[in-house]
């Protein structure tokens, strides 16, 4: 395939090095072609029934985004028969790593401003001419997805399976339905990444590039913004989140008319949805898939959900607030006992 696409210099051989794929079941390899040139090969998941469809989505969405000027990696080659994708190599430096080694928020704020610029281009330009048939999962982020893949993910994977807390209180289910109904009222004609966080943002030659976009679909603006600001990998403080939220709205306001009060209300509900989703995901990945790397981020994700529920709009969800307080206490005690062993 490398020779067919003229990616392998004459007389050279390729050396493959396995790479980490975080929560993905796909296989990642760095292809070293010579002393200075490398590419990244991505093979489809062997366990996911729609692994080939996921790779096709990555190809079609990637080409679409690149053509729209969205800062994503260039696709060097794609083999439809086996699903192999080859990308330009952007290195291994995630925005998360930059955040962790920074001495202050001021040091990494320019990178976050780049991320916001890239996000807005992804959302607005990426939605122009976007064909829902590109999507391998669902074509739109909607109320059904929120209930099944986010609040139920939280209830079953996190509460029941991870924390051993079985809660079928009908009042809780009604609160989740209320939350999803409100979130679903947000305009959803924009392109949504659905995992726009610091480990899916690579910093290459000083520029922020967006990866892992194959799950993109149409949806509201606030969800990906919440993914970035609430991101447990980075652990931004509330003050930094407020700065970036205001900056996002200022940037967005240059190209789109936005009612700030209406946006904030919708953003809150979408942030809640995202927080429920990541707790379900971290629990599932760490306990069911044995990827214990993710377990360390459960405590900060629980804390951010608790902080959201303390905001004025959180008064509408008293049962969830009580449940999260209980879960946080139980999780803290469990961690203390583990440290004591």
CATH architecture of the largest domain: Alpha-Beta Complex
Structural class computed from helices and strand pairing: alpha+beta
Uncertain parts: none
How is the CATH topology of the largest domain named? Answer: Aminoglycoside 3'-phosphotransferase, Chain: A, domain 2
Q: Major sheet: order of its strands?
A: 1-2-3-5-4
Q: What features would you highlight for this structure?
A:
single chain; Phosphorylase Kinase, domain 1; two-stranded antiparallel sheet; Aminoglycoside 3'-phosphotransferase, Chain: A, domain 2; 10 helices; 341 residues; globular
How is this structure best described in words?
By secondary structure, the protein is an alpha+beta fold. The chain has two domains: 15-88, Phosphorylase Kinase, domain 1 (2-Layer Sandwich); 95-340, Aminoglycoside phosphotransferase (APH), C-terminal lobe (Aminoglycoside 3'-phosphotransferase, Chain: A, domain 2, Alpha-Beta Complex). Helix content is 49%, strand content 12%. It has helices at residues 51-67, 95-101, 105-124, 143-162, 170-183, 222-229, 238-253, 260-288, 298-309, 318-340, and strands at 15-19, 27-32, 38-43, 75-79, 84-88, 190-192, 201-204, 207-210, 217-219. Strand 1 and strand 2 form a beta hairpin. Helix 4 crosses helix 8 (260-288) and helix 5 (170-183) crosses helix 8 (260-288). It is globular, with a radius of gyration of 21 Å. The mean pLDDT is 93.
